[in-house]
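Appendix B. Chain record.
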Amino acid sequence: VKALRSQDINVKGMVAIFSYGFELATQNFVDNDVELTTISDYDSLIKQAVAREYVPEEDLNTLESWRKNPSEWNAK
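Structure tokens predicted for this chain:
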């Protein structure tokens, strides 16, 4: 976004297929006044994975915990 704007290109938003919804990335979009639109996201993915029994329900908390802080997450 910064590279485009440095060339006087008006960036109104961004479209993506998927977002993990990481806090830092979300804040970067807010800070740069860029609206992000996605087709799906991590929370929807893991909920569907549990609903379709691809992932055991008891693993849901672990997956949600990882998404909240992947850089410092350690499997227990």
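Further analysis of this model is presented in Appendix C.
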